[in-house]
Design brief:
The chain has about 300 residues and is an alpha/beta fold. The protein contains 7 helices and 10 strands. A 6-stranded mixed barrel has the order 5-8-7-6-10-9. The longest helix is centred in the first third of the chain and has 16 residues.
Length: about 300
């Protein structure tokens, strides 16, 4: 069975496990985010993530291994408390299977969270960062392999604007000081050497992690319709002029100057990526305590 048919069958299982035929949005909770689900909304259904065909039980610390269906202000949100990684020995198809399943389950908006490391020394620990782009340095791609079924978009997905500028604009409307950065996705299994950090900084990376980029590519490829509940409605209720939002945010973010050269450092951070299968926006949050607890940085 090809991975797309497998994801579609898994989506049918999700509907049976949750009692919800279609979900509006999905959230993937990475390392250290396991307790966030309870704060998102009312839990309607709770099952083991491993009950979904094709998703192995999470082995990384901080991944809860639960599948939740939440009611969030009238929206049905699917929560995957855990993910699979290349460094665990999983193939690419398994790494992106959860995201593909979520899209086939009807999710038009996907939120990815992860634990990442900081490269840009101008961003203090604890600062949220919106991802504007990524470097896929994993040596893998969900678009490699047998051709995509004809019913789906073609293999060569356009990633020119993978992290949607308008969605980042919504975030800047709420927090104008929110910086942006480029995320480097690596295979993982070990933290980076000082020489590798210098290399990544030279390549333009502000953050580095062991997940997210493959899921982003897979979700972007399966582009779904635009959300029925446009963020602009929420912004108008908050008194924000949607037409005044920027159409394209600076690549390095919020008008701050390029980061100066700095001795190799690696400050652990936790990231969350908000993405639509067609429109992607990412945010990274840098908690203080992960520096003392590197075991939480599995991605």
């Amino acid at each position: 069975m090809n991975p797309y048919d497998a994801a579609q069958e898994a989506a049918h299982v999700v509907a049976k496990l949750t009692g919800v035929e279609r979900h509006d949005a999905a959230v993937v909770l990475g390392s250290g985010w396991g307790e966030a689900a309870a704060q998102l909304g009312t839990v309607v259904a709770d099952a083991a993530l491993a009950d979904v065909p094709g998703i192995p039980p999470p082995t990384v610390v901080g991944h809860g291994g639960r599948l939740l269906s939440l009611d969030v202000r009238g929206l049905r949100v699917l929560v995957l408390a855990g993910r699979s990684h290349l460094y665990e020995g999983h193939p690419v198809e398994t790494v992106v299977h959860g995201v593909r399943t979520a899209v086939f389950a009807g999710c038009e908006t996907i939120v990815l969270t992860n634990a990442a490391g900081g490269i840009d020394p101008t961003i203090p620990v604890g600062t949220p960062v919106a991802l504007s782009d990524h470097l896929n340095l994993t040596g893998a791609s969900p678009m490699a392999g047998p051709d995509v079924p004809e019913r789906l978009p073609g293999r060569f997905v356009d990633l020119t604007d993978a992290y949607d500028a308008e969605l980042r604009g919504f975030a800047h409307a709420v927090d104008p000081s929110l910086p942006e950065g480029v995320y480097a996705g690596l295979l993982g299994g070990a933290f980076e050497t000082p020489a590798e950090i210098r290399m990544l900084r030279t390549l333009g990376a502000d953050l580095v992690g062991m997940s997210t980029v493959l899921e982003t590519i897979a979700a972007r490829h399966l582009g779904a319709p635009r959300p029925r509940h446009q963020p602009g409605h929420q912004l108008r209720r908050r008194g924000v002029d949607r037409e005044a939002l920027p159409r394209r945010s600076p690549r390095r973010g919020c008008g701050r100057p390029p980061a100066p050269r700095h001795p190799a450092t690696r400050r652990p951070r936790t990231g969350c990526e908000y993405l639509n299968p067609r429109r992607v926006w990412s945010r990274v949050w840098v908690p203080h305590n992960t520096y003392a607890r590197p075991e939480r940085l599995g991605g």
